[in-house]
Amino acid sequence: MLKLNANKCKTVLYGRNVCTDYTNYLSGTVLARDNYIKDLGVIFDDQLNFQRQCYEKINIAYSMLGIIKRKI
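Below the sequence we write its predicted structure tokens.
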């Protein structure tokens, strides 16, 4: 009985030999295809490489460091 918002849903294809010749539908709406998706705070990309996740955490750490440096 879970209702999904088709406009907020995306698809990511995982694997080495992925067929991209098809489209996914949810309630008659075409789902957007993306190279990465963020789920519960973790970024998953199509290559299952967590480099984007690491860059995001590094940027957050630098912004926190900047806030600390301005307060001192």
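The CA atoms of residues 6 and 29 lie 6 Å apart.
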